[in-house]
Design a protein that fits this description.
The complex is a heterotrimer of chains A (307), B (360) and C (367). Helix content of chain B is 39%, strand content 19%. With 360 residues, chain B is an alpha/beta fold. By secondary structure, chain C is mostly helical. In chain C, α3 runs antiparallel to α8. The chains are: A mainly alpha (307), B alpha/beta (360), C mainly alpha (367).
């Protein structure tokens, strides 16, 4: 029992990391007012391209960079559709997402069945051998720590910097922001692209570190969970991270639950993150003030630079 | 539609039409194969393809193939098999259990095509099934597992709880218990033939529960095997020799070979003599074997394993020989009683020692 | 903003006053041609023969009764769902959970069929359709309620509900509804003949779903004739605030918009399980719920346009199968094609609704 709990606590950080990257990326995009539903496709292309490059170059770093760029390219295409061609954000997101899934399948095909060495586990401060907390806190791979760092940086940016305030202004009242002189379209482009890069890193982590192989369907809906996570976390970075951890733990719990002898169907656990998100969304949307404080008001609405 | 639009549409269609039409190939017999996962270099789909290649080697110019790989069970498979049927093949090989209902429906509509279906149990005039006695190779691997396990816990990452899989788990358990009576077995049911994410997480969860030998039961790709190498536990695979993914920790490789059966079916389909029946190949006829047995076994242990292979191949020993008790404590086979084929084909219970129950 | 060498030109948009319907058709054609061109280039890069593959995709499906039947089989659910979704989209109500509503409709019909598996009644099928429609409507109504009462964004809720519906299906076919004679495989028993749709054209698999889809088209068209804002083709998000049906308040628009989609998706679900599938299993739809969204947009949210778009999308599905089987082209290619269509359409739609001018001199632009 204890071992299974340990397994869930330790293993979850690996399962959480791709979700965390993708969700934080989407957070930035949504804060600037753009709803990007193509995350699943972006993660898939990050995964496929990252895996291909890692296999060919034997370098994990190159793989991550390549994966990030691939997803970034998709996000730029999304940005053009939504910010320049003023397309409906739902339709554009689905279109680009589908494109990403298709391209990833083609790119990854020659590499199916290969495997790459996983990311080495670090030994931070030499403390990875400490019983129980050692492996959890000090023995993870570098991207887990990068994820934590990212979380801290984004939380600080949005809470305390002018930069963060500008992004939030663009997301809340774009017309006013434009009138003050901020280049709304450009800022949104930047945020969407940033979200793409992070989604690509999350996807590449899946294929080169967590599962260390590529196959169609590798992302398995995590991109959509990332969208849910942003809502679940009420657009607050720390809450999103907690949510990512909880959702990751639930997915591991599904497998172990059979061992506990409990009669909970694993499908209920799979559905739980979505049900929880609906509940949270309903609760936070009720309070209009709370909602206005947190949800970017202009989310999903098209902005015309001369309108 | 305006006149302009109509014109554009016609012009467009003409442009397309000028792309030519497909050619018909005259004399060769077509054989269609549907694989549930990518063919790759190892795994279930790969061994299907090896069997297909045997047909190509034997019949050469007389046949050509239509292949569709990575086709999930469900509406996709239904479309693809109907698509294949429209090319009028002589034989269609359905490479997965879940293709059954769609396959039978198609077979009823197309008596001119013959079908062989993997892991199935229904037959009609033009629909047969093929199965391997993997419980034999599971038994042999179980012997090895019983020898090397220190924790006395084996972990099985299993696909679906269909009878074939249950028989393999039973084979493993019985083999291990023969040399190590206190061995217990834990199972995680994936409910998929192909889910690399979940299978790895399942493997990790089993190792967390102290399993030190893993049985990757019907994962079509070697992710559990390579994970076992990382985690430092012994591992047994299904279908193919996957030792290259776990050079240090690979324990044994149950292997399956469909060549003889596929060639026979293809020849019958082409000659028009095909009859839908069940084929259950084993060690005796070369369909099942165990390869790449680990050198972690001591010489006397290895001898026991090799003797078992010889005995089963000669038909002198059947792994499902009593006394065997089920998980529920029921005595299923009396001492010396050998389980007959029909109940074994539909087996729905697990032996004592398997701690996980069949999901209801 | 200061003007400098790096100042980007601004897009100045003027709403077209001439009717955009013709322009949108032009955009569709342009999108088809553009995605076709990109597809051919991609094929050439991959070392495949563009001619052979195009032949497989676009010609072969029409050359046999089988192919035409398959196209009709696929058009049915796509058309039906897209019409339902478009009712909402025209009113700015964004239902992206059609896949889940389809699933719930299929489950409801399946439970009915399995409960009456010895019945020969001619009322079984109509009952299944009604039950499926109600189930789909109910599932969509959850999202409508959450939006109307508590302001919850329906894009997110409908999608979440869709995922929940899929898990519900998995649970049912792995447990309570699993065929006891099915060797523990997660699927239900086969439905009896009384619970199955017959085929429309002997020798093909096209069935009644298509008729239902056509009916939905007709109803949609007639309904739109009576709505003052009906012909305002809302393609981009630039919907004026009045983009809802005359005489209806926002709440009504939300209820109608979501439930219309739910009903249509639910019936489409019945069409699948009472049609080609004939039982409940884990995968019921090859993504119809999402493909229908693309169809709705490609059709310019207009009932007749949607009809053409549905046939085109069905052709891509079927062509993809032909290409897979006869030219070994991976299925991913059909996916890429479908997505490129929508991408180009969305990119070009701007031009249909607005006249675009590039403005370089800052004096013309308000700062």
């Amino acid at each position: 029992m204890m071992d299974t709990l340990m397994f869930i606590v330790v293993g979850t950080l690996g399962a959480t990391t791709p979700l965390l990257f993708a969700a934080l990326g989407e957070l930035v995009a949504e804060r600037s007012g753009v709803l990007n539903l193509s995350i699943e496709g972006m993660m898939a292309s990050g995964a496929a391209v990252g895996f291909a490059v890692t296999t060919l170059s034997h370098s994990h770093s190159l793989g991550f960079i390549a994966g990030a760029l691939a997803a970034g390219a998709l996000s730029l295409a999304f940005g053009v559709l939504v910010l320049v061609c003023l397309a409906n954000q739902v339709a554009a997101g689905l279109a680009i997402g589908l494109l990403g899934l298709g391209v990833s399948a083609l790119v990854g095909k020659p590499f199916e069945g290969n495997t790459v060495p996983p990311l080495p586990k670090l030994n931070v401060l030499g403390l990875a051998h400490v019983p129980i907390i050692g492996p959890i806190l000090f023995g993870q791979d570098i991207l887990v720590y990068a994820g934590v760092a990212l979380l801290a940086i984004l939380a600080w940016i949005f809470k305390r910097t002018k930069f963060g305030l500008i992004i939030r202004a663009v997301g809340e009242a774009p017309t006013a922001a434009r009138d003050i002189g901020y280049p709304v379209i450009r800022i949104r482009f930047g945020c969407v692209a940033f979200g793409g890069l992070l989604a690509g890193i999350g996807g590449a982590y899946l294929s080169t570190a967590y599962t260390a192989l590529w196959t169609e369907g590798l992302v398995a809906g995590r991109g959509w969970i990332a969208v849910a996570l942003v809502v679940f976390g009420s657009w607050i970075p720390l809450r999103i991270a907690v949510g990512a951890y909880v959702f990751g733990a639930i997915s591991l719990l599904e497998l172990s639950i059979q061992g506990f002898g409990l009669n909970v169907p694993s499908q209920f656990l799979s559905a739980l993150p979505y049900i929880a998100t609906i509940v949270v969304l309903a609760v936070i949307s009720r309070d209009a003030t709370y909602l206005r404080l947190n949800r970017p008001v202009a989310l999903g609405k098209v902005f015309r630079s001369d309108g | 539609m305006t006149i302009t639009q109509r014109f554009l549409a016609i012009a467009f269609a003409l442009a397309i039409a000028m792309l030519g039409s497909g050619s018909a190939s005259a004399q060769k017999a077509k054989i269609g194969v549907i694989y549930p996962s990518p063919i790759g270099e190892v795994g279930w789909a790969h061994e299907l393809d090896v069997g297909r290649q045997a047909i190509a080697d034997k019949l050469g110019d007389k046949v050509e193939f239509v292949k569709a790989e990575n086709i999930p069970e469900g509406p996709d498979a239904q479309r693809i098999m109907n698509q294949m049927a429209s090319e009028n093949p002589k034989l269609i090989i359905l490479g997965s259990f879940g293709y059954m209902n769609d396959g039978m429906r198609l077979a009823a509509k197309r008596p001119d095509i013959d079908f062989i279906h993997a892991s199935g149990y229904k037959t009609t005039q033009n629909f047969g099934w093929f199965l391997a006695r993997n419980y034999e190779s599971a038994y042999v691997a179980g012997l090895a597992a019983g020898y090397v396990t220190k924790s006395k816990i084996l972990g099985v990452v299993a696909a679906y709880p269909i009878p074939e899989v249950l028989a393999m788990i039973n084979g493993l358990t019985i083999g291990a218990q023969k040399v190590n009576p206190d061995v217990t077995v834990k199972v995680v049911w994936l409910n998929s033939w192909f889910d690399p994410n979940k299978s790895q997480e399942a493997a990790r969860s089993l190792v967390a529960q102290k399993a030190d030998v893993l049985y990757s039961l019907y994962q079509d790709t070697p992710e559990v095997v390579s994970l076992a190498e990382q985690l430092g536990v012994h591992v047994i695979s299904t279908s193919s020799d996957m030792s290259k993914y776990a050079p240090k920790w690979y324990l044994a490789g149950p292997h399956v070979n469909w060549s003889k059966f596929f060639v026979a079916s293809a020849e019958a389909a082409i000659a028009g003599t095909f009859k839908g029946q069940g084929y259950w190949g084993g060690m005796k006829d070369g369909c099942v074997s165990v390869v790449a047995i680990s050198h972690d076994l001591k010489p006397d242990q290895r001898k026991v394993v090799e003797d078992a292979i010889v005995a089963i191949t000669a038909g002198q020993f059947h792994p499902m020989t009593g006394p065997i008790t089920s998980q529920d404590g029921e005595l299923k086979l009396k001492p010396g009683e050998v389980m007959a084929d029909p109940p074994l084909l539909g087996i729905n219970w697990l032996v004592k020692g398997v701690e996980t129950r069949i999901p209801r | 903003m200061r003007e400098g060498l790096l100042t980007l030109p601004r897009l100045k948009l003027e709403l077209r006053t001439d009717h955009s319907r013709l322009a949108l058709v032009g955009v569709s054609l342009m999108a088809i041609i553009a995605s076709f061109a990109v597809g051919m280039i991609l094929l050439a890069i991959l070392g495949r023969s563009p001619m052979r593959v195009s032949n497989a995709f676009f010609i072969q499906p029409f050359t046999s009764l089988y192919g035409i039947g398959e196209i009709l089989l696929k058009t049915g659910p796509l058309l039906l769902i897209a019409q339902g979704l478009a009712v909402g989209y025209r009113a700015n109500v964004w239902n992206i959970g059609a896949e889940g509503q389809l699933t719930v409709g299929a489950i409801a019909a399946g439970v009915l069929a399995l409960s009456f598996d010895t019945s020969n009644s001619v009322f079984l099928l109509p009952a299944m359709i009604i039950v499926g429609a109600l189930a789909g409507a109910a599932w969509a109504a959850i999202a409508a309620f959450l939006r109307v009462r508590w302001n919850a964004n329906e894009i997110l809720t409908t999608f979440m509900l869709s995922s929940v519906a899929l898990q519900l299906l998995y649970y049912l076919v792995t447990g309570p509804l699993r065929d006891p004679l099915g060797q523990n495989f997660p699927q239900s028993a086969l439905f009896s003949d009384a619970a199955l749709f017959g085929t429309l054209i002997p020798g093909s698999r096209a069935n009644t779903s298509l008729l239902l889809g056509l009916a939905a088209t007709l109803i949609s068209y007639v309904f739109m004739q009576h709505s003052i804002h009906g012909f305002r083709l809302i393609v981009s998000g630039l919907a004026p605030r009045a983009a809802r049906y005359a005489g209806f308040g926002e709440a009504r628009a939300v209820w109608i918009g979501l439930i219309a989609g739910g009903i249509c998706a639910g019936i489409a679900g019945v069409g699948e399980v009472a049609g080609p599938i004939g039982m409940l299993q884990r995968v019921l739809s090859p993504g119809y719920g999402f493909a229908a969204i693309i169809v709705a947009f490609l059709g310019g949210l207009h009932p007749i346009g949607i009809m053409f778009a549905a046939v085109l999308m069905a052709l891509l599905y079927v062509g993809g199968d032909f290409a897979l089987v006869s030219a070994s082209v991976p299925n991913a290619f059909a996916t890429i094609f479908q997505s490129l269509l929508l991408v180009f359409y969305l990119a070009g739609a701007l031009l249909a609704v607005y006249r675009v001018r590039l403005v370089w001199r800052s004096s013309e632009v308000p700062t």
